[in-house]
Amino acid sequence: MLKKFNLVIKTISIVGFILVLSACSNGANTTENQAEAKNNSTETRKVSTVMGDIEVPDRPERVVVDWHLGQVMALGLMPVGAPLTLTDYGKFLEPLVSDEMADIGSEGTVSMEKVLELEPDLIITWDQEAYEKYSKIAPTIVYDTTNYNSIHEEI
């Protein structure tokens, strides 16, 4: 009887010790992951644009674009918002566009309310006149269409 009791106590102690270790381990990883995510989201770099130098996220995660959707996607960015009418010009884009990409209107008549709802961390545009409105929402890159060597270079 005493042997059974000792076995039960040892088993409970081992299980308790394992639970304590796993709880401590998961907490440390979560804290490290949260700190790493915060560092990634707060790192910025300076970019020279036609509107002057601006600070943009080093790794933008929520990008809105109002033109040149294909070129932006070719750079590895999947925008959270874009005028879905842009796929009319490039039918090849339709299968590449995420179902989660929000339609922000049509080029030239973008809904600023919709852009604001998407909470972008970067906006890419060609429209210098829209810069003032966009830049109140998020850092905004305006690429110069008069110096049009390559969209890849500009972005």
UniProtKB/TrEMBL annotation:
Key words, A-Z: Signal, Transport
Protein name: ABC transporter substrate-binding protein
Subcellular localization: Cell envelope
Similarity comment text for this entry: Belongs to the bacterial solute-binding protein 8 family.
Superkingdom field: Bacteria
Gene Ontology biological process terms from the UniProt entry: iron coordination entity transport
One Pfam assignment: Peripla_BP_2
Range of residues in the leader sequence: 1-28
GO cellular component: outer membrane-bounded periplasmic space
Residues covered by the Fe/B12 periplasmic-binding domain: 62-155
Organism: Sporosarcina psychrophila (Bacillus psychrophilus)
Broad class of the protein's primary localization: other
